[in-house]
Write a structure and sequence with these properties.
By secondary structure, the protein is an alpha/beta fold. Among the domains are: about 240 residues, P-loop containing nucleotide triphosphate hydrolases (Rossmann fold, 3-Layer(aba) Sandwich); about 120 residues, Rossmann fold (3-Layer(aba) Sandwich), CATH 3.40.50.300. It contains 17 helices and 22 strands. Strands 6-7-8-3-9-10 form a six-stranded mixed sheet, with helices on both faces. A six-stranded mixed sheet has the order 16-19-20-13-21-22, with helices on both faces.
Amino acid sequence: MTPIVVIRNLSKSFPGVRALDRAQFELLPGEVHALMGENGAGKSTLMKVLAGVYRKDEGEILVDGKPVDVESPRAAQALGIGIVHQELNLMNHLSAAQNIFIGREPRGRFGVFLDEDALNAKADTIFQRLHLKLDPRTQVGDLTVAKQQMVEIAKALSFDSRVLIMDEPTAALNNAEIEELFRVVRQLQAEGVGIVYISHKMDELRQIADRVTIMRDGQYIATVPMATTPMQSIISMMVGRELSQEVPDIPDTSANPVVLAVRGLRRGAAIKDVGFTLRKGEILGFAGLMGAGRTEVARAVFGADPIDAGEIEVHGKRVTIHSPQDAVGHGIGYLSEDRKHFGLATGLDVETNVALASLRRFTRAGMFIDQGAIGKTAKDYVRQLSIKTPSVQQLVRLLSGGNQQKIVIAKWLLRDCDILFFDEPTRGIDVGAKSEIYKLLNALAAQGKAIVMISSELPEVLRMSHRILVMCEGRITGELKAHEATQEKIMHLATLRESTTTAA
């Protein structure tokens, strides 16, 4: 079978970073080809070159056996190459149909006025092809993330795409939405569309991928069949080393002093009479299905969202928290699940981001910033946390997701917070970086830091937590000790509509 796409010896550099080093890739018609590697391995960069977002420095790209120069996204679209980015590129104030055909809208008489009926009909034709029940006139901002993703797929297919690149497509989807996405992927596969699927979720790739290409440090490592290759072999190729599967002994923290106590926390329908305690040196896992209220609780305690009622005690003293500034003043730090919007200033460099929550420490004479001290401190944290960056002057947006997450952690460690909320700490992070984050969390707990870890990955919750609280529809429906918790027990509690026990 002749490949649709062949990439040979492709290289790409950015200031201070060689992102791709003679990389290669091949895609067959009707194939779902997984692209795997640690954050920073070059996966997204390789696909952005193929999609015309970046220009290659060296190498060649062949489409249908012929060399091509993909100089822009428009050139890629003309070649039948579409991409659905991890961060969706839609305009919320426009309809689904308007987003799909923006810049290519059908015109009515005299070519002046937009033909809304024709526009909606064209969009509806694509939705019918995908068996999607979606009104093309619906404003995109009113759609769920899963439906917005389907609009992005429809947009890519509107260019008669024969190649569809999907970058972390399930990062924000629940299980039912993932199944719907897989249905669409399999349908496109049956139609002969070649699909490049970038993901860190091993279980998903087992279900959907035919072959997998592994990259490491911008270089091609191997292409192997998904069904017959042991997952440990794939992981070893990704990270260049064997990862320890050993789960650390979970210490008994039940006698440790309580550092945070929350009682009667309420906020509309999102939080219903939530109470819990957190002890020194404890990792308290929060589990539950999407929409259970876990993030809402963290944001409420941190002062990011107002509450209707509730009491918060820190180190045995009742405190009032109306804002994140108040929370930080009481030694509480919050690492948001959306690090790019709420945890980082991606347009600034590493050293500035590390110092953001502690700028007063570096202020001299009440008005001058000691940039030298910031740089030295940032270098210390880069070394301590093994942050991969050419320098502390590197822009954060140019770093991988795992390294960005470490910078957020460094920011709160510098602020010396005793209580840390980690909301989806490994979302969008590869298996190697996950292992490093796990070691870091355990080390922080061993130092006496009190940690609340919110995660949608049950194996992660079970591996890391000293104690687990489960939420459903804004309530805590149960508490499990580490030694008694199983995925089945967590899922049972995550689907209960009434609380069965009071968390203490």
